[in-house]
Amino acid sequence: MLVNVFKSKIHRVKVTQAELNYVGSITIDEALLEAAGIMENEKVQIVNNNNGERIETYAIKGKRNTGIICLNGAAARKAQPGDIVIIISYAWMTPEEASSHKPTVVFPDENNRVIS
Q1: β-bridge mates for residue 26, sequence order
Q2: Interatomic CA distance for residues 29 and 64, integer angstroms
Q3: 84-93 sheet: strands from edge to edge
Q4: Which SS3 state, helix, strand or coil, does residue 14 take?
Q5: pTM above 0.90?
Q6: CA-based, 20 to 30 A from 81: which of 12, 27, 105, 113?
Q7: Backbone angles phi and psi of 92, in degrees to 5
Q8: Across the 116 residues of the chain, what is the mean pLDDT of every consecutive 10-residue run?
Q9: What whole-number distance in Å separates Cα of residue 49 and Cα of residue 80?
Q10: How far apart are CA 69 and CA 104, in angstroms?
Q11: Catalytic residue positions?
């Protein structure tokens, strides 16, 4: 049996763009993806603290150290620039793996930069 557990998150980043006329996904600064251990094309959940929306999409690598957080396609209807979101990833693990797993949590600064 496998369980789906919280793997990592980028906690409280500011949406910088919303691009409706795009195929879909969320573009995330490459440095934030790396810090959280989220791979490009990995499924993520986005929780919008401003309006309560919760959506699932996949991550696209954005230019490193730009602070970009851009909801694309239909997801752009769920957030506006300036909204604060949490980006969460999950992983399938055996119960044994899950019992010792320690999630990675990234707390960016107010400009969506990784705090060292």
Answers
A1: 59, 71
A2: 5
A3: 17-19, 69-72, 25-29, 54-62, 43-48, 84-93, 3-14, 104-106
A4: strand
A5: yes
A6: 105
A7: -85, 130
A8: 98 97 92 98 98 97 97 95 98 98 97 90
A9: 11
A10: 19
A11: 25, 58
